[in-house]
Amino acid sequence: MRRTFAISLAALGLGMMAIPLWIGPAVQWTSQFAAPLPTVKPSRTIQPSQSLSPEPQSLQAAPLQDNPKPGQRCATLWIPSLHLKVPVVQGTAYGELLLAAGHYPGSVMPGQLGTSVIAAHNATYFRHLNQLRPGNRLIVTTSQGTFWFDVTGHEIVSDTAGLPVSPASTLDLEACDPLNALYLTPNRYIVESRLVRSVLTDHATPTVLMPPASPYHAMIPSFVTDHYSLSLQDNSLPMGTLRYQDAGTAADFTYQQSVLPLQAATEAVNLWLAFKDASQVDNSSAMQALWTHAVGNPYVNAKAIAFPGTLSLLFRLNASGQPLSITLRDPFVRINNQLFSVTMDTKFTGDTLFIRQVHFERLMSSGGAS
Predict the structure, then answer these.
(1) CA–CA distance, 324 with 306 (Å, rounded to integer)
(2) Contact in structure between 216 and 264 (CB atoms under 8 Å)
(3) Residues 204, 75: Cα–Cα separation, whole Å
(4) Which residues pair with 112 in a beta bridge?
(5) For domain 9-200, which architecture applies?
(6) SS3 for 185?
(7) What share of the chain is helix, strand, coil (3-state, %, to 5)?
């Protein structure tokens, strides 16, 4: 049975849908991307059959109180079935979701009467939301106490659907759908849960989270970084999907639901753009520093390069949950009005990412390119 919704998920997803802007220099995390959320939409009419019952008298909800300040740590979310414990900050803007999962300010805090919403990127903490099943436990600790929720189901809804209205104490977890997408999506994957136990106590929670330092570094010559922006904000490079080829270990699973994949993807896409930029101006020293096998490179001296396709990434992990390589592939790259499929294989040596090889496959003659 579908629930009644009040607040637009498009508003909630503003920071989440900025995922393409994540792929770029780490300096992008700053507050310039933490734009205010747009005005929410009014709710649809509530039908009595759609409403959840209020909390029973034996289950005590936390009293309403003012929400924390934007960017302030406000909770810890623990999902035992996913072996996931993640800090939660107030807000779902770009800079906030870089640090942690985010509590949507338009919803109540977890454990209070009403629906609380916690959001995170599908490329980080909420990669495996679709593995949650009814009865799985969610545990949230806030300054008001510890609250246990049981998963009741899930929905995939449009970003225009809005947040649910509930007189009971409920918690929704949200990520962009599909969960392997690296692009702005029109749908949201929602895991729904209901409060089943609470212990009201005062908890002191850390109020500040620092931007996570990336352990990864791409081998990019200074010529490129000095002369070109590698930010997707300044490059039209549509993103596709993020997939894994792993050993199926617990360490692999843990890696996939952390900030590390997005940090590694940042460096890989930087390499993709750096190679294109250095090739296009035919800077031999920069190309040699990036990749020594430049024979037959159609980027060289190209007058026009466009990306009508989408760039997808395939991570290969070892049994310890460490990345071995990342393959980047764009099936449609237009170079001087000629379409190519371009594949870049990169490899890790320690925490440093190198280009191993780049393969260009011509798809059609210039007369057939659209």
Answers:
(1) 29
(2) yes
(3) 10
(4) 62
(5) Beta Barrel (2.40)
(6) coil
(7) 20, 35, 45
CA nearest 6: which of 32, 38, 36, 45?
45
Sequential pLDDT tens for the chain (370 residues): 445 545 555 555 544 444 443 333 322 322 222 233 232 333 322 233 333 444 444 477 888 777 788 888 999 999 999 999 999 999 998 778 878 999 999 899 999 999 999 999 999 999 999 999 999 999 999 999 999 999 999 999 998 887 777 889 999 999 999 999 987 789 999 999 999 999 998 766 656 666 667 789 999 988 899 999 898 888 999 999 999 998 889 999 999 999 999 999 999 999 999 999 999 998 888 888 887 665 689 999 999 999 999 999 999 999 999 999 999 999 999 999 999 999 999 999 999 999 999 999 999 755 444 4
The DSSP code for 38 is P
**CA-CA distance, 310 to 182, in Å (whole number)?**
10
How much is the pTM? Answer: 0.81
From the list 305, 303, 330, the residue with the least C-alpha distance to 238 is: 330
Both structure tokens of 209: 């989270």
Domain chopping of the chain, boundaries: 9-200, 217-368
Please count the residues of the chain.
370
Q: Which amino acid does the sequence have at 325? A: S
**Encoding tokens for residue 166?**
């509930």
